[in-house]
Specification:
By secondary structure, the chain is mainly alpha-helical. It folds into two domains: 1-82; 86-113. It is 80% helix and 0% strand. The longest helix is centred in the middle third of the chain and has 57 residues, at 26-82. It is rod-shaped.
């Protein structure tokens, strides 16, 4: 909130007015203040609920930001990997093919036994 509130429910409830010769009706003032207290309580309840929602949304936002940063890192790594030196990629592919060939040979040997 922008600033501190001047009144709370108890202050409104405890407020007493001076009575002049031609003063206000005490019953009328009390009835009006009861309405003010009800509205003020409703306002405080709504404010508390909205503050809880804000806190929840901030937690969700922080979580989603962390996931976004993680995904951006993964994407960057994937792009870097795809854009890396083609000779290195070729060498890695040759290594994979050699391993695969050795495994196939071992499987064939075990099947022939």
């Amino acid at each position: 909130m922008a600033g501190k509130l001047n009144l709370d429910i108890q202050t409104i409830l405890d407020k007493r007015f001076d009575i002049d010769f031609k003063g206000y009706s005490g019953l009328e003032v009390d009835t009006f203040l009861d309405l003010v207290i009800e509205d003020y309580q409703t306002y405080q309840d709504i404010t508390a609920e909205l503050n809880q929602k804000i806190a929840e949304l901030e937690r969700t936002n922080a979580s989603l930001r962390a996931k976004l940063i993680e995904e951006e890192g993964r994407t960057r790594a994937l792009v870097d990997q795809q854009n890396s030196n083609p000779a290195q990629q070729g060498a890695a592919n040759v290594d994979i093919l050699k391993r695969l060939s050795r495994l196939e040979e071992e499987v064939m040997k075990q099947n022939n036994r």
